[in-house]
């Protein structure tokens, strides 16, 4: 694998499967109380320019379980919030730390950080992509279904960072993908262009939620208003009405269809409380797997640096 994890588009399907295999191994070791085979004392800098619960706790716990240490840097409390260039931050952190995780707005900021950092950079969410989340999602689906290739994934809602990463992650491992979203909220053009190039599985996009859900083995959704879009909340509530995982949608899917939600969830908006609770075990397995999938990413990227 390369130096960084910036977006799933940069990885091959084989590299994604390798991460999932390492994630399964690290998860099994942790559950069995077996010490991981990883050099001690590595430091992860964690830059947060947006809020987080899962990403922060799973990365900080993950590096600790690998025998290292996490350092939390919020934009408001670090010099980043006072305008220090990301390129300078990259070169400074590279002198102290072994890896950087960043959650921010534009993907260009993450790419710039990685360009100037001599240590691995991991995207912990941008407006374009949420690769760590989708790696955890794929790990969860494989655990529950025993396979990935040949399954059908459906995503209902905003064509946002989650939709973008789901399309790429699922298609790279051979899953068919159907997206239901309003026309004005389609996924990123670069992602749609990618989907057109894939030949071993299918991609469809529609405004018809039931059509997209037909025959699905896993249905994803995400919030109608992502972080940074708070001012559009009222408009989005109108535009996304009906783009919801509910009993009718689940009835159109295959028997045993899973539900994935990256969380936090807004019951009564993108998912009903009943469907959420009926699939809570899957959704919280998915949340747990953030820890294991990210440990795998850190494990692979930091071990690569030692070669
Ligand atoms: N799913 C996810 O990334 O959660 P946080 O925003 O809490 O990190
Ligand atoms: N699409 C959401 C995901 C949160 C984990 C956001 O960007 O806010």
Secondary-structure blueprint:
Elements: H1 13-32, E1 43-48, H2 54-65, E2 69-74, H3 86-96, E3 99-103, H4 107-116, E4 121-123, H5 131-145, E5 152-156, H6 161-172, E6 176-180, H7 189-197, E7 203-206, H8 209-213, E8 218-221, H9 233-239, H10 247-252, E9 258-261, H11 273-278, H12 280-306
Parallel strand pairs: 1-2, 1-3, 3-4, 5-6, 5-8, 6-7, 8-9
Helix pairs in contact: 1-5, 1-12, 2-12, 3-4, 5-6, 5-12, 6-7
Bound molecules: phosphoric acid mono(formamide)ester and norvaline.
Phosphoric acid mono(formamide)ester is lined by residues 52-55, 125, 133, 262-263.
Strand numbers in spatial order across the main sheet: 7-6-5-8-9
Strand content: 5-15%
Which small compounds were modeled alongside the protein?
Answer: phosphoric acid mono(formamide)ester, norvaline
For the sheet with most strands, the description reads: 5 strands, parallel
**N- and C-termini, Cα separation:** 12 Å
Shape verdict: globular
Mean pLDDT: 98
| Helix-strand pattern | HEHEHEHEHEHEHEHEHHEHH
The tally of strands reads 9
Describe the structure.
With 307 residues, the chain is α/β, with parallel strands linked by helices. 46% of the residues lie in helices and 14% in strands. It contains 12 helices and 9 strands. It has helices at 13-32, 54-65, 86-96, 107-116, 131-145, 161-172, 189-197, 209-213, 233-239, 247-252, 273-278, 280-306, and strands spanning 43-48, 69-74, 99-103, 121-123, 152-156, 176-180, 203-206, 218-221, 258-261. The strands form 2 sheets. The protein has a 5-stranded parallel beta sheet with strand order 7-6-5-8-9. It has a 4-stranded parallel beta sheet with strand order 2-1-3-4, sandwiched between helices. α1 (13-32) packs across α5 (131-145), α3 crosses α4 (107-116) and α5 crosses α12. The longest helix has 27 residues, at 280-306. The two termini are 12 Å apart. The mean pLDDT is 98. It binds phosphoric acid mono(formamide)ester and norvaline. The site of norvaline (NVA) has 9 residues, from α6. Phosphoric acid mono(formamide)ester (CP) is lined by residues 52-55, 125, 133, 262-263.
């Amino acid at each position: 694998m390369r130096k960084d994890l910036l977006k799933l588009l940069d990885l091959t399907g084989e590299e994604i499967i390798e991460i999932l295999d390492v994630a399964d191994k690290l998860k099994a070791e942790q559950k069995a109380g077996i010490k991981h085979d990883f050099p001690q004392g590595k430091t992860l800098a964690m830059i947060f320019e947006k809020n987080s619960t899962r990403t922060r706790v799973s990365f900080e716990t993950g590096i600790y379980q690998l025998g290292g240490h996490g350092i939390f840097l919020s934009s408001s409390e670090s010099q980043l919030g006072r305008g220090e260039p990301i390129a300078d931050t990259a070169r400074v952190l590279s002198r102290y730390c072994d890896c950087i995780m960043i959650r921010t707005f534009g993907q260009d900021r993450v790419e710039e950080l990685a360009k100037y950092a001599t240590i691995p950079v991991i995207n912990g969410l941008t407006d374009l992509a949420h690769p760590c989340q989708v790696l955890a999602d794929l790990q969860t689906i494989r655990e529950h279904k025993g396979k990935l290739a040949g399954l059908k994934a459906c995503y209902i809602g905003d064509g946002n960072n989650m939709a973008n990463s789901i399309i790429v992650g699922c298609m790279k491992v051979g899953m068919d993908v159907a997206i239901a979203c309003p026309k004005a909220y389609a996924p990123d053009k670069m992602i749609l262009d990618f989907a057109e190039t894939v030949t071993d599985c299918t991609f469809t996009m529609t405004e018809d939620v039931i059509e997209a859900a037909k025959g699905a083995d896993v249905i994803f959704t995400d919030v109608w208003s992502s972080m940074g879009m708070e001012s559009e909340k009222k408009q989005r509530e109108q535009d996304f009405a009906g783009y919801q995982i509910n009993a009718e949608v689940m009835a159109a899917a295959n028997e045993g269809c899973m539900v994935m939600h990256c969380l936090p969830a807004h019951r009564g908006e993108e998912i009903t409380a009943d469907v959420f609770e009926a699939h809570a075990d899957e959704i919280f397995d998915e949340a747990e797997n953030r820890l294991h999938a990210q440990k795998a990413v850190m494990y692979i990227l930091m071990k690569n640096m030692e070669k």
